[in-house]
């Protein structure tokens, strides 16, 4: 005779079945009966934990996307938020989860019960998590304390929802990065600034004057460049990046601040960038060797 499954196991199987059904058929095909059949559970058992179809749908959705939307913890809140925001964009743009969340948001406007479930079981917990990340960064001294985390959450994730639901403009990785670059640097605590090292000034001047030869010469022969995970090595790599992402797209740099990094001869440069490909303000981690740049990391 088959033994009774532990309650936690049944609950997990019901959530998995709900999430799978929701992604496969959307809210139009989502029923308690179908979830029960997939999970091998009774309707009575399901109603004991979830009072409505909407509450089960929202918990099922949250369970299948939770891992994709986790925040990393690198110790740099700007890097962590950028990574999570990009993951969110990929989820809602490139997977069936995007269609489902559009359906849920739309249906919640006229279904009061679903709207309540959406707020209590998905949007408020997600918002609280993002706000906690920001408050932790304040406690660590990364960010100022005189801003409203709720407003910042709306500026970042709300902007993604806007492009998801009102598709006037495309929802791109570049858009997500620009959101972070435009908002987070202004929230950072002010550190002691330093004068501009000659290597960094040469890097800026060469870019602004569209002098490709001088730009490459601003780097050491064994230089390393990382642009959001795309890596380039040596003068050939720097020249390649310059052609596709810098002078090649008519970039113009304006230094907003330079702060000492955590190692000798290293600096965090807050740079305002204008180009045919990217416009925004963000940090560049630069390490110099003599009068040249040895490494440049853009994130």
UniProtKB/TrEMBL annotation:
<keyword id="KW-0805">Transcription regulation</keyword>
<feature type="DNA-binding region" description="H-T-H motif">
    <location>
        <begin position="31"/>
        <end position="50"/>
    </location>
</feature>
<dbReference type="InterPro" id="IPR001647">
    <property type="entry name" value="HTH_TetR"/>
</dbReference>
<dbReference type="InterPro" id="IPR050109">
    <property type="entry name" value="HTH-type_TetR-like_transc_reg"/>
</dbReference>
<dbReference type="Pfam" id="PF00440">
    <property type="entry name" value="TetR_N"/>
</dbReference>
<dbReference type="InterPro" id="IPR032710">
    <property type="entry name" value="NTF2-like_dom_sf"/>
</dbReference>
<keyword id="KW-0238">DNA-binding</keyword>
<keyword id="KW-0804">Transcription</keyword>
<dbReference type="GO" id="GO:0000976">
    <property type="term" value="F:transcription cis-regulatory region binding"/>
</dbReference>
<feature type="domain" description="HTH tetR-type">
    <location>
        <begin position="8"/>
        <end position="68"/>
    </location>
</feature>
<dbReference type="Pfam" id="PF16859">
    <property type="entry name" value="TetR_C_11"/>
</dbReference>
<protein>
    <submittedName>
        <fullName>AcrR family transcriptional regulator</fullName>
    </submittedName>
</protein>
<dbReference type="InterPro" id="IPR036271">
    <property type="entry name" value="Tet_transcr_reg_TetR-rel_C_sf"/>
</dbReference>
<dbReference type="InterPro" id="IPR011075">
    <property type="entry name" value="TetR_C"/>
</dbReference>
<dbReference type="InterPro" id="IPR009057">
    <property type="entry name" value="Homeodomain-like_sf"/>
</dbReference>
<dbReference type="GO" id="GO:0003700">
    <property type="term" value="F:DNA-binding transcription factor activity"/>
</dbReference>
């Amino acid at each position: 005779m088959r033994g009774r499954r532990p309650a936690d196991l049944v609950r997990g199987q019901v959530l998995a079945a709900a999430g799978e059904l929701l992604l496969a058929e959307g809210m139009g095909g989502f029923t308690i009966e179908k979830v029960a059949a997939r999970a091998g559970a009774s309707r009575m058992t399901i109603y004991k934990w979830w009072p409505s179809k909407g509450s089960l749908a929202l918990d099922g959705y949250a369970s299948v996307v939770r891992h994709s939307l986790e925040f990393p913890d690198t110790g740099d809140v700007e890097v962590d938020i950028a990574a999570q925001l990009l993951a969110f964009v990929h989820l809602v743009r490139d997977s069936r989860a995007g269609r489902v969340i559009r359906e849920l948001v739309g249906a919640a406007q006229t279904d009061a019960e679903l709207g309540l479930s959406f707020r209590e079981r998905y949007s408020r917990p997600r918002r609280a998590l993002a706000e906690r990340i920001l408050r932790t960064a304040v406690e660590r001294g990364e960010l100022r304390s005189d801003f409203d985390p709720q407003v910042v959450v709306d500026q970042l994730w709300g902007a993604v929802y806007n492009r998801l639901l009102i598709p006037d403009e495309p929802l791109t990785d570049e858009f997500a990065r620009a959101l972070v670059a435009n908002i987070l640097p202004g929230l950072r605590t002010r550190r002691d600034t330093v004068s501009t090292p000659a290597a960094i000034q040469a890097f800026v001047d060469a870019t602004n004057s569209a002098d490709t030869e001088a730009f490459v010469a601003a780097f050491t022969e064994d230089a390393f460049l990382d642009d959001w995970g795309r890596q380039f090595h040596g003068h050939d790599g720097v020249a390649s990046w310059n052609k596709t992402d810098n002078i090649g797209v008519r970039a113009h740099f304006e230094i907003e601040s330079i702060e000492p990094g955590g190692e000798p001869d290293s600096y965090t440069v807050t740079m305002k960038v204008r180009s045919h490909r990217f416009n925004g303000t963000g940090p560049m981690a630069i390490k110099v060797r003599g009068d040249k740049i040895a490494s440049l990391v853009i994130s």
